[in-house]
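tool_call predict_complex ligand=shikimate-3-phosphate
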Amino acid sequence: MARREDKTTDANIILTGFMGTGKSSVGRLLAEHLGYEFVDTDEWIAARCGKAIHDIFRDQGEAAFREMEAALARELGGLKKKVIATGGRLMLDADNAAALSRRGRVFTLWATPEEIIVRVANDTATVRPLLEGPSLETRIRALFEERRAGYARFTPIETSGKTIAEVVQLVLNRLEDRAA
Ligand code: S3P
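tool_result ok
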């Protein structure tokens, strides 16, 4: 994969998409290629709170977590040269999207619900509070449908059947298109 220099801008690159679409893995590799700092919003929130996301949901509730996401979106919106992997709902909030889009290019990573179901089921290291409980498949399909239109507002990148490196290359290609 060719390393590219971003000649025209040092805008942030923001990755959104449903849980399990590879935002963090793609973001990490993309940041390496661009020489940008990588930020994972869930990791930042967890580090600042000193506890895992599912513990924040359990102890403080989802609304408190969404407030933390909003504060972080405002903070990150003022920075440059970051690749930001966002939690699955962060960019679906209009104020968060406005704060981050101001100086950033936003890409939605897409995967089919079928692929998301497999990826989430295989990712036993991550506890996702919104998907806990029985019938993982039903929850994923319902939430995916609810969010589909929101994700469709940003530049699409298809990830199904692709490796992380291939997805990174697709994002780099889209960046080149717009820099031309
Ligand atoms: C959420 C997605 C999670 C995390 C939290 C809520 C969501 O991040 O922010 O569990 O509402 O979609 P990932 O998309 O990185 O799994």
